[in-house]
Amino acid sequence: MLDKSLWDLMKERKMVSLNLSQIWPIIHQLLVAFSALKDMGIMYTDLKPDNVMLVNHKDCLTHYKSIWKNFSAKMSSTASTSSEEEVIQFQKYDVLRSGTARYLLLEFKGEGCFGQVAKCFNLQTEEMVAIKIHKHNNNKSIQNEVEMLRQLRALDTDKKNIVKFIDNFEFHGASCLAFEMLDKSLWDLMKQRKMVSLNLSQIRPIIHQLLVAFSALKDMGIMYTDLKPDNVMLVNHEDQPFKIKLIDFGLAIPAHQAEVGMVLQARAYRSPEVYFGLPLTEAVDMWGMGCMMGFFYFGLHLFPSDCDYHWVKAILHMLGQPETPVEYEIVTGVRPKDRMAFLSLLKQCLQVDAEQRISPREALKHTYVTMAHLGNRTSSYVDTAGILMAVSPGRFGWI
Questions:
Q1: Catalytic residue (one of 226, 230, 248, 338)
Q2: Contact assessment for residue 275 and residue 308, using Cβ atoms and an 8 Å cutoff
Q3: Residues 6+ apart with CB under 8 A from 351
């Protein structure tokens, strides 16, 4: 019995590429196999990720890292020492030390192109923290993220729904950033739900809390530029359903530093002004907001992310649609009215003209967020919507 295919692994990683230390053992083992087949005069002819199985992925990770470390040492005499990838050496139960604290590494929670996130125990405060360990020592990029996070300390991060930044330090050559420990990302939640869409009452508190965060960022002149479900964390989904915080400010920039031609945002959430080389403002984040609203409601991305041509074609198709709410004037009842309000905000977020796109402050006053269109109605639908919005305090007169 084997584990899972490399295709399954890539899907679990959301198609995030492997680094060189991860690719090397795969290629080495395949070369051994194909060398044996060639000696037997056999052509395999069907090599693809589906047909390469991991034997026991969990138990082999440390072994592969050890192989790569030894391989790198052997190659160092003949190859350049400036490697493209840095292998993270930290292991479970290592103690990471900063100038003010010691952190016991309990487990790795996730991995991305930046490096890994580890769940750690602060031995001084006895609190759980999440430590982001960078695999690359790109000082400029890391310094930019730290600078953004330090600016955000001026905010009440709990009220503004932004992750709390605790510490930054370098340990054994790796740059580490410590944050409050949160639950799971909205991407993880959607995967657990097998991409079954959220309902409007579940989407509303998420959008409201993000609008509060983006309103605060806009007031500080900060463009977030990387909104996607991976970067929105549930605080404690069991105790506070849909209470969220915005994380990962590695790509955030001061708005005055945004230059025409910059490539920003994940492709599925990328705004027209980025694609077309137009002036960039904080409005790029509201486009991302609209894309994420659509993703949660439909359970799939609104726009294709495979190529620019398909994206432009989809945008042009969307622009040919009737205006909201005129197209829904004949609809009555609580649920249809809530759907109409949702679509109204969605379209205002997805205005191709960035100057016409709704701002976070304006969106906070939209009826979908305030629930004003539901009035004083008494129904299980309205009751549920009110309960879910309790995690996102605001001035709702009917609550």
A1: 226
A2: yes
A3: 357, 358
pLDDT in tens, 130-144: 999 987 666 677 888
In words, the CATH class of domain 186-391 is mainly alpha
Q: Where are the CATH 1.10.510.10 domain residues in the chain?
A: 186-391
Residues sharing a CB contact under 8 Å with residue 275, sequence separation 6 or more, in sequence order = 308, 311, 312
Say whether 129 sits in a helix, a strand or coil: strand
- Looking at the chain, which residues constitute the CATH 3.30.200.20 domain(s)? 95-180
CA 243-247-253 angle, 5° bins:
135
Q: Quick one: which of 110, 229, 239 has its CA closest to 179?
A: 110
* 322-359 per-position pLDDT tens digit: 344 444 333 434 567 888 888 889 889 998 889 999 99
Estimate the crossing angle of helix 200-219 against helix 380-388, to 10 degrees. 30
248 catalytic? Reply is no
CATH of domain 95-180: 3.30.200.20
Name the nearest CA neighbour of 190 among 294, 346, 311: 294
Which two structure tokens, joined as six digits, stand for 261? Answer: 């031609």
DSSP 8-state secondary structure symbol assigned to residue 81: S
